[in-house]
Specification:
Elements lengths: L1 H42 L9 E2 L13 H23 L2 E3 L2 E6 L38 H5 L9 E7 L4 H4 L9 E8 L8 E10 L4 E4 L4 E3 L4
Antiparallel strand pairs: 1-8, 2-3, 4-5, 5-6, 6-7, 6-8
């Protein structure tokens, strides 16, 4: 009888211990959740309003190419402009009136298309009439020299600069110098007023008289 009474007397203490363990477990769970939340917050990039500049776009992470269709348009366009610049340099040009004397030179800068700035949340339809958009320049200047044109609506403004006036240096990226060129695309597909820039440069190697294109594409605010 005394033994049963003793056991009954111990029951409240046993139950209290279980409650303490449950509360301790709940606290541990809360600590884990808090730690996970802090870790998640730590992994998120905070937008401080400043442009995100990447000398190599691959360093921006996979999120920078989430809008695949639109960014691929920019990359393909830049690639075609770069190839046009290299091909134009390889073409021999007569010097003066002597057809036996030839030289190689980069195409001179082109007028950006569209000239009014990057499209904001819409596509721009290039004009194909003479003297407009890609139908500008000549054998030594601009889009005709590069033999580059786009006929379909475009999300980005495209440009080509040679020797100076580089778009890349405006955004804190390294420019190719006086013997180089850049092909760039600037756009604002989501229309938030914060454009993204993609640019690739190239430079004439004076020793070999060949154009050496940059091995990487640079970008500013690729998440936009």
């Amino acid at each position: 009888m005394n033994r049963w009474l003793l056991l009954l007397a111990l029951v409240p203490f046993v139950l209290a211990g279980c409650d303490d363990k449950k509360k301790s477990g709940d606290d541990d769970d809360n600590d884990d959740e808090s730690a996970e939340t802090k870790e998640d917050d730590k992994g998120k990039a905070k937008d401080d309003g400043k442009p995100k500049v990447f000398v190599d776009c691959s360093e921006a992470g996979p999120g920078s190419y989430s809008k695949a269709a639109k960014t691929s348009e920019a990359k393909n366009g830049i690639g075609a402009i770069t190839r046009g610049a290299m091909a134009a340099f390889e073409r021999e040009r007569a010097v003066g009136d002597d057809p036996m004397v030839a030289s190689h030179a980069l195409c001179k800068s082109a007028t950006p298309v569209p000239a009014g700035g990057p499209p904001k949340g819409v596509k721009y339809q290039p004009q194909s009439t003479e003297g407009q958009d890609y139908e500008t320049g000549d054998a030594e200047t601009g889009w005709k020299c590069l033999k580059f044109a786009m006929s379909r609506p475009q999300h980005y403004q495209y440009g080509y600069n040679a020797g100076s006036g580089y778009k890349s240096t405006e955004f804190g990226l390294p420019g190719p110098g006086p013997d180089g060129f850049e092909a760039w695309a600037m756009g604002d597909p989501d229309g938030d007023g914060r454009p993204s820039l993609y640019v690739r440069t190239g430079k004439v190697d004076k020793a070999t008289q060949r154009v050496k294109p940059g091995t990487r594409m640079s970008c500013v605010d690729p998440f936009e």
